[in-house]
Amino acid sequence: MTRSTPKKTCCKRPSSCCACFIFLFAITFIVGAAFFFARILSNNHDPIASCNDCHCITSGNASCPATKPRTIFSKTTLDEFSNARALNPRTLSCNPFKNETCDMFPPQNTTLVGSDTVCGLRYEAANNTDECPTDYNMFTYKNTDEAKSDGAVVTHTGACGVCSTTQDLAAYMRTPDILTATKHCSKLSLLRGNSRENCLAEIGLSKACSELWLHRWNAVFVNCLLECTESMLRDEPSNTGPQCELNDCVQCNEDTVGEVFTQVAGRTRRRSGLLSTEARLCEEISPVIHQSCPMVNVTLAEQRSVEN
C-alpha cells in the first residue's frame, strides 16, 4: 500500500502555532506603524519659526518689519473668542481634496473673492451694553473699508470658510504649532479612529474645521509620504538654508493641498496675522488686529476716528 504524503502546513499544530505566529506578526506591525506615525507626524523644533533673526522672510534688500505679530494671548482673550457664537457657521459634508465640486454650506460667494477680500464678523448687540457681544454673523467683503462701513470687524483676509469662526481663531492662538497638533489627531484617526474626536476637542477647533484638517493630513499622507519620511529622517526644521526655503515635506504639503485648504478653510495663520512653525514671506502675513470685545455697529468714520 502506497503511503500518502501529508500536506505541509506552516507548523505541526495549525490551531495553536499558526495562530500565535499571526498574532505576533500583527502586534509587530501595529507597534511598528505606531512608531512610524509618531516619528513622521512629530515636530521637535520651535513652535514659532524665524529666518535670520526675523519673524518672517524678507524680500530682496528689505529690512525686517519693526512690529512683530503677537504670539501670547491672555486666558481672558482666548475664552472670549472661544465662547463667542457664529450664527451662520459653514459646514462641510464632503472631502474637498477628493471631490473638486465639493463646496461648503452656505456656499462661498466667489464673485466677491479678490486680492483685497476680507472675512468680517458683524456682532449682534449684547442685551447689556456693559457686556461684550457674543453672537455674530460671518460675511465676505470686497475689502476692509466695506467691512468696516457695515459695522463688521475683520477677522482674516480672504473669503470666509469653515475655519473662520472665533472658536477656530482661539484654537490657533492657543496652539502655535497647530500643524503638529492636528497631525497627531490624524495619526490617531489612522490607528484608533474613535480617538480623533477627543483629540480635536482638546485643540478646540470647530467641527467643520476639524474635519477639514483631518482630510488635509490624510491627503498629505497619500501624496507626500516619501518627502515627509526623508525630512523626518533628516530631522529637518520647516525652513532650511540661508534663504529659509521650505523643506521638501512642507513644500509638498503646500503644492498638493495648500490651495484647496486655504480656499475651504478661509482662516489660516498667515491670513489671521499669526506666526507659525514655518517662516513665511513678510508680505504674506496679514496685519490683522483681533478684538475679543469689539465695538458694535461702528461706522467707518467712527472707526477711523478711534484708530487715529
**Secondary-structure element string:** HHEEEHEHHHHHEEHH
Distance between the termini: 109 Å
Query: What's the alpha carbon Rg, rounded to whole Å?
Result: 24 Å
DSSP E strands, number: 6
What characteristic shape results from the CA principal axes?
A: globular
Give the fraction of residues assigned to helices: 40-55%
> Which ranges are low-confidence, i.e. pLDDT below 50, for 5 or more consecutive residues?
31-43, 296-308
Mean pLDDT: 82
Q: Structural class given helices, strands, pairing?
A: alpha+beta
Strands side by side in the biggest sheet: 1-3-2-4
Number of continuous helical runs: 10
**DSSP strand (E) fraction?**
5-15%
Multimeric state: single chain
Largest sheet: 4 strands, mixed
What key attributes describe this structure?
308 residues; single chain; disordered C terminus; four-stranded mixed sheet; alpha+beta; 41% helix; 8% strand
Task: Outline the structure in words.
- By secondary structure, the chain is an alpha+beta fold.
- The protein has helices at residues 14-40, 75-83, 144-149, 166-174, 178-191, 196-203, 207-223, 225-233, 248-265, 300-307; strands at 85-86, 118-123, 135-141, 153-157, 239-240, 245-246.
- The strands form two sheets. Strands 1-3-2-4 form a four-stranded mixed β-sheet. It has a two-stranded antiparallel sheet with strand order 5-6.
- Helix 7 (207-223) runs antiparallel to helix 9 (248-265) and helix 8 (225-233) crosses helix 9 (248-265).
- The model is unreliable at 31-43 and 296-308 (pLDDT under 50).
